[in-house]
Amino acid sequence: MLLPNGIQHLPGYLDHPAQMALLEAIRAVVTAAPLFTPVMPGTGKEMSVRMTNCGPLGWVTDKQRGYRYQPTHPVTGRPWPAMPPQLLDLWHDIAGYEKPPEACLVNFYSDDARMGLHQDRDEQDLNAPVLSISLGNTCLFRVGGLNRNDRTLSFKLSSGDIVVLGGEGRLCFHGVDRIYPTTSTLLKNGGRINLTLRRVTA
Ligand code: SIN
Ligand code: FE2
User: What cofactors does the UniProt entry give for this protein (predicted)?
Assistant: First the structure.
């Protein structure tokens, strides 16, 4: 399938042991920084994913202050846990960007969660790619162009797959239409975890 320029799909990049090790590291992150339910700016409508972060900055959203990065967890007020070394290594190996990532957003999708079409544009540094890692059940990922109404195409992301949104594709609209239950045994209770690594400051 021909993806938009700058968008790369690396199927099966992480083998099963690497997925297990990464999951272990993410479990520790979630213990230190519990998942919270993000709400849309303005409307206050809850998103269906739950999220947390690791690294010096984390992406958060609430009704009053909207989408932003901040150094502390919105519920506990504590700094985000450090980024696990595996993630720094993946960034080094794949991103081709000299500065390290500052934020890893951890999205947890239950089997009925989705994510609407959106752009990742809350970062000051848009030269760095966004690196997205999938764990657990397969999802249907949709990617379009630079305008919301551009034609989109969809493909499945399985556990261990990585997607890079970089270059001309950095601001492409994207979203998750659905999760396919029971397509992976990595997560005991089903669902899907997506990790997005980002450089935030210029
Ligand atoms: C996101 O765009 O933040 C998540 C993408 C995904 O779950 O694959
Ligand atoms: Fe995104």
Answer: Fe(2+)
Has this prediction a pTM greater than 0.90? yes
Cα–Cα distance between 48 and 45 in angstroms, integer? 10
List ligand 1's pocket residues with C-beta within 6 A.
107, 115, 132, 141, 174, 176, 194, 196
Distance (Å, whole) CA 94 – CA 164: 8
- Residue-wise pLDDT tens digits, 133-146: 999 999 999 999 99
Atom of ligand 1 nearest to the CA of 139: 8
Structural domains of the chain ordered from first start: 7-196 (2.60.120.590)
Asked if residues 106 and 131 have their Cβ atoms less than 8 Å apart, the reply is: no
